[in-house]
Write a structure and sequence with these properties.
By secondary structure, the protein is an alpha+beta fold. The chain has helices spanning 10-15, 69-75, 91-99, 108-115, 122-129, and strands spanning 2-8, 44-51, 56-59, 80-83, 88-89, 131-133, 139-141, 147-150, 155-158. A seven-stranded mixed beta sheet has the order 5-4-1-2-3-9-8. A two-stranded antiparallel sheet has the order 6-7. A hairpin with a 5-residue loop joins strand 6 and strand 7. The longest helix has 9 residues, at 91-99.
Length: 163
């Protein structure tokens, strides 16, 4: 479970009455609405996903000049940041959500908790979730096809579709 965040420009918000699709309702919209993807202004762009205990999954679009958190911060003034529940998020709050993340300590209690979900060990958890230990007791995405980089802090750079 987690919360997805989007950047919506005024034209797109007006056209959709402020409705931001949840990726489970419209999985094909994970990278933006059909016919309007990549057209700036006028798009709804997926900023990323916040999942408890994980580094923030920052959705990057290198082909459209969004390859880092700094690139996203520069875009935030061009629209409104909205979460999947249609709540408006300030740029300051969005920055905090991405940069000020902490997990739980990986101790005996944590291991007992993951055993309840069928994992044999911490290594088994990371293998099955394509993850690795991250900063501040977080789990982070392992570099690969979808995770193209680790941010300088508590975020990972993710390409492609994800929810």
């Amino acid at each position: 479970m987690g919360i997805n965040f989007y950047l919506a420009t005024p034209r797109r918000m007006e056209a959709h009455n402020w409705y931001i699709p949840h990726c489970t309702e419209y999985p094909q919209w994970a990278n933006g609405p059909p016919g309007d993807y990549g057209t700036w202004p006028g798009s709804v762009l997926h900023i990323g996903k916040s999942s408890g205990g994980w580094c923030f999954g920052l959705h990057v679009f290198p082909d459209f000049g969004i390859s880092s958190l700094d690139d996203w911060k520069a875009k935030w003034s061009e629209g409104l940041i909205i979460d999947e529940c249609e709540r408006v998020i300030s740029p300051k709050s969005m920055t905090r959500i991405i940069e000020d993340r902490h997990g739980i300590q990986h101790n005996d209690t944590w291991f007992r908790d993951i055993q309840r979900f069928g994992y044999n060990s911490e290594a088994d958890f990371h293998r099955r979730n394509h993850s690795q230990p991250g900063p501040h007791d977080l789990v982070r995405h392992k570099l690969g096809k979808h995770c193209i980089g680790h941010g300088e802090g508590t975020w990972d750079l993710i390409v492609g579709e994800f929810c």
